[in-house]
Design a protein that fits this description.
Elements: E1 5-10, E2 26-28, E3 31-32, H1 33-41, E4 47-52, E5 66-69, H2 78-87, E6 92-97, H3 105-113, E7 121-125, E8 132-139, H4 144-154, H5 159-165, E9 169-171, H6 186-193
Parallel strand pairs: 1-4, 1-6, 4-5, 7-9
Antiparallel strand pairs: 2-3, 6-8, 7-8
Protein backbone atom coordinates (compact mmCIF):
# COMPACT_ATOMS: atom_id res chain seq x y z
CA UNK A 1 0.00 0.00 0.00
CA UNK A 2 1.50 3.38 -0.97
CA UNK A 3 2.14 6.10 1.59
CA UNK A 4 -0.74 8.54 1.98
CA UNK A 5 -0.55 11.94 0.34
CA UNK A 6 -1.85 14.71 2.56
CA UNK A 7 -2.44 18.35 1.74
CA UNK A 8 -0.84 21.04 3.89
CA UNK A 9 -1.91 24.67 3.65
CA UNK A 10 0.89 26.76 5.15
CA UNK A 11 -0.96 29.49 7.06
CA UNK A 12 1.38 30.03 10.02
CA UNK A 13 3.14 33.15 8.81
CA UNK A 14 2.78 36.40 10.73
CA UNK A 15 1.54 38.37 7.67
CA UNK A 16 3.69 41.32 8.73
CA UNK A 17 3.86 42.99 5.31
CA UNK A 18 0.14 42.44 4.66
CA UNK A 19 -0.86 43.80 8.06
CA UNK A 20 -3.59 41.19 8.51
CA UNK A 21 -3.94 37.42 8.41
CA UNK A 22 -3.41 36.30 4.80
CA UNK A 23 -5.31 33.07 5.44
CA UNK A 24 -8.51 35.09 5.94
CA UNK A 25 -8.19 37.13 2.73
CA UNK A 26 -10.92 36.60 0.15
CA UNK A 27 -10.15 36.25 -3.57
CA UNK A 28 -12.65 33.66 -4.81
CA UNK A 29 -16.44 34.03 -4.57
CA UNK A 30 -16.52 35.06 -0.92
CA UNK A 31 -14.25 32.20 0.21
CA UNK A 32 -11.22 32.91 2.38
CA UNK A 33 -7.91 31.44 1.22
CA UNK A 34 -8.00 28.44 3.58
CA UNK A 35 -11.47 27.48 2.35
CA UNK A 36 -10.48 27.98 -1.29
CA UNK A 37 -7.22 26.00 -1.08
CA UNK A 38 -8.92 23.25 0.92
CA UNK A 39 -11.43 22.84 -1.92
CA UNK A 40 -8.66 22.84 -4.54
CA UNK A 41 -6.51 20.23 -2.75
CA UNK A 42 -9.20 17.89 -1.42
CA UNK A 43 -9.81 15.90 -4.66
CA UNK A 44 -6.10 15.06 -4.93
CA UNK A 45 -5.16 14.05 -1.37
CA UNK A 46 -6.31 11.74 1.40
CA UNK A 47 -6.74 14.59 3.92
CA UNK A 48 -6.07 18.32 4.12
CA UNK A 49 -4.46 20.03 7.10
CA UNK A 50 -3.76 23.67 7.89
CA UNK A 51 -0.38 24.58 9.38
CA UNK A 52 -0.70 27.34 11.99
CA UNK A 53 1.10 29.09 14.83
CA UNK A 54 -0.26 28.45 18.32
CA UNK A 55 -1.70 31.97 18.43
CA UNK A 56 -3.93 31.22 15.42
CA UNK A 57 -5.76 28.16 16.71
CA UNK A 58 -8.68 30.22 18.05
CA UNK A 59 -9.29 32.07 14.76
CA UNK A 60 -12.91 31.61 13.72
CA UNK A 61 -12.16 30.92 10.04
CA UNK A 62 -9.89 27.99 10.99
CA UNK A 63 -12.30 26.15 13.27
CA UNK A 64 -13.66 23.73 10.66
CA UNK A 65 -10.24 22.42 9.61
CA UNK A 66 -7.71 19.91 10.86
CA UNK A 67 -4.84 22.07 12.08
CA UNK A 68 -1.23 21.22 12.81
CA UNK A 69 0.46 23.64 15.17
CA UNK A 70 4.06 24.61 14.50
CA UNK A 71 6.07 22.51 16.93
CA UNK A 72 9.65 23.30 15.93
CA UNK A 73 11.87 26.24 16.82
CA UNK A 74 12.41 27.22 13.18
CA UNK A 75 11.48 30.67 11.91
CA UNK A 76 10.47 29.59 8.42
CA UNK A 77 7.85 27.52 6.59
CA UNK A 78 10.05 24.47 7.32
CA UNK A 79 8.52 24.64 10.80
CA UNK A 80 5.11 23.80 9.37
CA UNK A 81 6.44 21.17 6.97
CA UNK A 82 8.50 19.36 9.61
CA UNK A 83 5.68 19.63 12.17
CA UNK A 84 3.38 17.92 9.66
CA UNK A 85 6.00 15.23 9.02
CA UNK A 86 6.30 14.73 12.80
CA UNK A 87 2.53 14.23 13.04
CA UNK A 88 2.40 11.69 10.22
CA UNK A 89 5.88 10.37 9.29
CA UNK A 90 4.54 7.91 6.70
CA UNK A 91 2.75 10.60 4.67
CA UNK A 92 4.05 12.70 1.82
CA UNK A 93 2.80 16.27 1.79
CA UNK A 94 1.35 18.39 -1.02
CA UNK A 95 2.27 21.79 0.39
CA UNK A 96 0.84 25.14 -0.70
CA UNK A 97 1.37 28.55 0.89
CA UNK A 98 -1.81 30.37 1.84
CA UNK A 99 -0.63 33.51 0.04
CA UNK A 100 -0.80 31.84 -3.39
CA UNK A 101 -4.34 32.67 -4.60
CA UNK A 102 -3.83 31.52 -8.21
CA UNK A 103 -3.21 27.86 -7.37
CA UNK A 104 -5.89 25.81 -9.09
CA UNK A 105 -6.81 22.21 -9.86
CA UNK A 106 -4.96 22.29 -13.19
CA UNK A 107 -1.72 23.35 -11.48
CA UNK A 108 -2.12 20.65 -8.81
CA UNK A 109 -2.77 18.00 -11.44
CA UNK A 110 0.29 19.10 -13.43
CA UNK A 111 2.50 19.00 -10.32
CA UNK A 112 1.27 15.52 -9.38
CA UNK A 113 1.75 14.24 -12.93
CA UNK A 114 5.38 15.41 -12.78
CA UNK A 115 5.93 13.96 -9.29
CA UNK A 116 9.03 11.83 -8.82
CA UNK A 117 8.60 10.11 -5.46
CA UNK A 118 12.22 8.89 -5.57
CA UNK A 119 13.37 12.49 -5.13
CA UNK A 120 12.99 14.42 -1.86
CA UNK A 121 10.38 16.70 -3.40
CA UNK A 122 8.78 17.77 -6.65
CA UNK A 123 8.17 21.43 -7.35
CA UNK A 124 8.13 23.99 -10.13
CA UNK A 125 11.02 26.29 -10.94
CA UNK A 126 10.39 29.70 -9.42
CA UNK A 127 9.57 32.38 -11.98
CA UNK A 128 10.95 35.05 -9.62
CA UNK A 129 13.99 33.54 -7.90
CA UNK A 130 16.37 31.05 -9.41
CA UNK A 131 15.85 27.50 -8.27
CA UNK A 132 12.81 25.72 -6.89
CA UNK A 133 9.53 27.15 -5.64
CA UNK A 134 9.24 25.17 -2.38
CA UNK A 135 5.86 26.42 -1.20
CA UNK A 136 3.85 24.68 -3.89
CA UNK A 137 5.45 21.26 -3.85
CA UNK A 138 5.17 17.62 -2.90
CA UNK A 139 7.56 16.92 -0.04
CA UNK A 140 8.16 13.17 0.21
CA UNK A 141 8.02 11.33 3.54
CA UNK A 142 11.53 9.91 3.13
CA UNK A 143 12.99 13.45 2.99
CA UNK A 144 12.38 14.18 6.68
CA UNK A 145 15.71 12.89 8.02
CA UNK A 146 17.67 14.78 5.35
CA UNK A 147 15.79 18.01 6.08
CA UNK A 148 16.42 17.64 9.80
CA UNK A 149 20.10 17.02 9.15
CA UNK A 150 20.38 20.21 7.08
CA UNK A 151 18.63 22.21 9.79
CA UNK A 152 20.78 20.75 12.57
CA UNK A 153 24.19 20.68 10.92
CA UNK A 154 24.15 23.44 8.35
CA UNK A 155 21.56 25.72 9.97
CA UNK A 156 19.65 25.83 6.68
CA UNK A 157 16.06 26.83 7.33
CA UNK A 158 15.15 28.32 3.96
CA UNK A 159 12.86 25.87 2.12
CA UNK A 160 14.29 26.93 -1.27
CA UNK A 161 17.89 26.30 -0.18
CA UNK A 162 16.78 23.02 1.38
CA UNK A 163 15.36 21.75 -1.90
CA UNK A 164 18.45 22.88 -3.81
CA UNK A 165 20.71 20.95 -1.43
CA UNK A 166 18.45 17.89 -1.45
CA UNK A 167 18.33 17.64 -5.25
CA UNK A 168 14.58 18.01 -5.63
CA UNK A 169 12.77 17.25 -8.87
CA UNK A 170 12.40 20.80 -10.25
CA UNK A 171 9.86 21.02 -13.05
CA UNK A 172 10.56 23.74 -15.59
CA UNK A 173 7.48 25.16 -17.28
CA UNK A 174 4.18 23.34 -16.95
CA UNK A 175 2.23 26.16 -15.28
CA UNK A 176 1.52 29.78 -15.99
CA UNK A 177 3.97 32.01 -14.11
CA UNK A 178 1.06 33.82 -12.40
CA UNK A 179 -0.03 30.59 -10.69
CA UNK A 180 3.13 30.67 -8.58
CA UNK A 181 2.65 34.30 -7.49
CA UNK A 182 2.61 35.19 -3.81
CA UNK A 183 0.49 38.09 -2.56
CA UNK A 184 2.26 39.72 0.39
CA UNK A 185 1.28 43.40 0.61
CA UNK A 186 -1.97 45.41 0.65
CA UNK A 187 -1.10 46.84 -2.78
CA UNK A 188 -0.54 43.37 -4.26
CA UNK A 189 -3.85 42.29 -2.72
CA UNK A 190 -5.72 45.23 -4.28
CA UNK A 191 -4.13 44.49 -7.66
CA UNK A 192 -5.07 40.81 -7.40
CA UNK A 193 -8.71 41.77 -6.91
CA UNK A 194 -8.85 43.79 -10.15
Amino acid sequence: MPNPLYGLILAGGKSTRMGRDKSALVYHNGKDQVCYLNEVLRPFVDRVFVSVRNAQTSKVHLQDYDVIEDARDIASPLNGILSAMDMSPAASWLVVAVDMPYINATAVKTLLNKRNSEKTATCFASPVKSGPDPLFAVWEAHAKAEIEELVAQAAITCPRKTLIRLMANIVKNGVNEKVLSNINTPQEYREALL
